[in-house]
Amino acid sequence: MTAIDLLAIALGGALGGLARWALSFLGPIRGTLAANTLACGLLGLCMAIGIEGFWGVFLITGVAGAFSTWSTLAKELGGLIQAAQTTSAAVTIMLNLFLGALAFWAGGAFGAWLL
User: TM spans, by residue (predicted)?
Assistant: First the structure.
């Protein structure tokens, strides 16, 4: 890993973190779902078009890595379970997994279309 890679990760991470914070207006569970879904779509797009080097590290590790938020999802699920809202917790995790996979596929399909 080079100094340029570290810079790419730092810049992408800052951008992804700020974008994640901007989604907080949607509320805890919706904002997390939106962030995880969009990050998966970005990853699918990047993988399909073969982004590597500086831009790969910037977009995949930096932006998508900081934008997606599995730790916040775990916190929110824990809160739902503690509040005995197990159905809501199950729906939340299923939506994150399903929409994330769907967004990854859609991003990949869009990337293939671009090429």
Answer: 6-26, 38-67, 87-114
